[in-house]
Amino acid sequence: MTLPTTMNAMVTMGHGNMDQMVWHPDWPCPTPAASEVLVRVKACGLNNTDVNTRVGWYSKAVTEATSGDGYAKVDDEDPTWGAAPISFPRIQGADVCGEIVAVGIGVDATRIGERIITDCWLRDPQDPNDINKTGYFGSERDGGFAQYTTMPAVNAIAVNSPLSDAELATFSCSYSTAEGMLTRAGVTAADTVLVPGASGGVGTGLIQLAKRRGARVVALASENKHDAVRALGADLVLPRAPGNLRAALGDEKITVLADVVGGPNWSTLLDVIERGGRLTCSGAIAGPIVAFDLRTFYLRDLTFTGSTVIAPEVTAALVRYIEAGEIKPALAATYPLRELHAAQSAFIEKAHTGNIVVVP
């Protein structure tokens, strides 16, 4: 096929409000370098990294909850997930579903025509397990908020599924984050997992992937989302912030807290973990600064694990689960790429259950 020289793209020009995301109908179309592929983007999911990077929320200068608005102060040296600077302009968007349309030197040409989703983590080919040498698609290099994008061939994971492009675009970030958290916490069928923010993208992944491991799941969500959360497999669904969480849990014994919320209710959640239990954390959308009583931590023999960079095999495993029908997408809404501002507003407001996707 003849490839275009320009394309539509939503380009982030700097840190700040949504007006930093600027529509360009004639952005240069990328060319795959050696060991890379060119992907025609069919759909691209939204995730918190897109918002947090744009506004600079990862900077230690920011102490507030995640917001779609810019902050008064963002330090230039640590505004990204990796506590490092970012180069602008940048095309964000990590969760691509698309088709390989060209390959660079060293990539088998038979891959042209493959339907793929992204493994979002960019690794050193010579040392893929060194998490100090990782980057993130749409952060350390341009991503999928455009008609075309390039990526290392190893990050384009072939998928064979009857699911739509938009449905497949819900998996890469949210579900790999969830599976990474459960792996770090060593969740098994012996566990009961408490999932705050259960109606969000990662929450919907946590419910299904924990159930896949045979665990029991207790979900916290706004009451208007309970039916949707229950349909994903949660065994017990409670309000987002019960007045007395311990009483609301009844006889449930929480062995794992899988949290991406943080914020003012965090210490309450910590208090209900059983002695010897585990916390795994991969976010703090309600606020990164929490009250923490060290006595709860050490007197009850708790284990804490942070979870960001996932093992290389996690996305490949997710594709196997998708192809086997063991997990399903939680697609909340789709928007045209040109309406990314509206899509991010809906994402930030968390008015839906599941993931929001844009389509070029």
Summary of the model, kept short:
The protein is 22% helix and 26% strand. It is α/β, with parallel strands linked by helices and 360 residues long.
Describe the structure.
The longest helix has 12 residues, at 174-185. This protein has 360 residues and is α/β, with parallel strands linked by helices. Helix 3 (174-185) crosses helix 4 (201-212). The strands form 4 sheets. Strands 3, 4, 5, 8, 9, 16 and 17 form a 7-stranded mixed sheet that branches. The chain is globular. It has helices spanning 48-55, 165-168, 174-185, 201-212, 226-231, 245-249, 266-271, 294-299, 313-323, 340-349; strands at 6-12, 21-28, 36-45, 95-103, 115-118, 121-122, 135-136, 148-152, 156-158, 192-195, 216-220, 236-238, 254-259, 273-281, 303-306, 331-336, 355-359. The chain folds into 2 domains: 6-170 and 329-359, Medium-chain alcohol dehydrogenases, catalytic domain (Quinone Oxidoreductase, Chain A, domain 1, Alpha-Beta Complex), CATH 3.90.180; 177-306, Rossmann fold (3-Layer(aba) Sandwich). InterPro entries: ADH-like_C, ADH-like_N, ER, GroES-like_sf, NAD(P)-bd_dom_sf, Zinc-ADH_QOR/CCCR. Keywords: NADP, Oxidoreductase.
